[in-house]
Amino acid sequence: MELEFFSAAFFSALLAIVLIDLVLAGDNALIIGLVARNLPKEQQNKVIFWGTFGAIAIRAAMAMVVVYILAVPGFMLAGGLALVWIARKLLMPGSDMAVHEEKLANAPVTSLFGAIRTVVIADAVMGVDNVIAIGGAAGGSMFLLILGLAISVPIIVWGSHLVIKLVDRFPAVILLGGAVLAWTAYTMIVREPFLAAWFQTHPALKMVTAILIFSVSMSPWIAARLSERMRPITVLLPALMIWLLGVEVAGTLLHTKLTYLSATETGAQVLNAVRWVGWVPLALAFLWIREQRLNARQTQGI
């Protein structure tokens, strides 16, 4: 469904695309700069121009494909789950993203063509996340999709140092970008055709799904700022949301109507008891095992 031009939803989607470009397209600008630095001065501008041209062409082709396959049953769900993984990767302290980029950038380059090829291949590998994210944020609007790609061009060509300085000066940009990716993942999952009807009959589960997606996406950033004793919350919170969703799925499969405040049928009463109490022994077992491991680690360190 196309978004109405210059509506609140349009500008909201556009802002999300700009943030996605800032946090994801900067990697590709960095690759071009790292590859071009290994060549003679007179060839660097050619690498930047043709490398960017080839990268944008491949990204545009991937974006066009994404627009059409977003309508394929199951792809919105898969794309949403992919964005959750991308958000986690973005917010992971000491992740292997920099190592991966360095390997791509330092691939053997012996000619101008080899440098351009390295840039294009690197962007094709690393640009998938950007295309999926923009496609999801565009909400089916081809205009927004093309605009998002157009915005990514100056970021890729001129924006590497700007993005790096911006992120160094304001680290919250990365956190905000992760939150935008998590929200985009949520909107894609709840718009999944074969899940939409289920969410309509279980409206409370939209909130549960949102909490699950945000807690999983943001957990690396949160865990890095919590003490060792408090870090289990980053596992227990999403696990509890998965438990609640699982009970609802079981109720649907068993054709048992569940309510959050009361239950009249025996099957519904049992499922309600499982929903509210069944997770407690599992959580306590997890905390006990983790405590034992921490104690053993501390003992070995003495």
Set out the fold topology.
Elements: H1 8-36, H2 41-69, H3 75-91, H4 97-105, H5 112-126, H6 128-138, H7 142-158, H8 160-169, H9 172-190, H10 193-201, H11 204-223, H12 233-253, H13 266-277, H14 279-301
Jot down its keywords:
302 residues, mainly alpha, 2 domains, 14 helices, 80% helix, globular
Structure commentary:
The structure is a single chain. The model is unreliable at 95-101 (pLDDT under 50). Helix content is 80%, strand content 0%. The protein is globular, with a radius of gyration of 23 Å. By secondary structure, the protein is mostly helical. The chain contains 14 helices and no strands. It folds into 2 domains: 8-200, no CATH class; 226-302. The longest helix has 29 residues, at 8-36. The chain starts with 7 loop residues before the first helix and ends with a helix.
**Cα-atom Rg, whole angstroms?**
23 Å
Q: How much strand content do the residues show?
A: under 5%
Overall geometric form: globular
Number of strand elements = 0
Taking all residues together, what is the mean pLDDT? Answer: 75
- Give the helix/strand class: mainly alpha
**Total of domains:** 2
How many H/I helices? Answer: 14
The largest pleated sheet is described as: none
Helix proportion: over 70%
Distance between the termini: 62 Å
Q: Which ranges are low-confidence, i.e. pLDDT below 50, for 5 or more consecutive residues?
A: 95-101
> Helix and strand string, N-terminal first?
HHHHHHHHHHHHHH
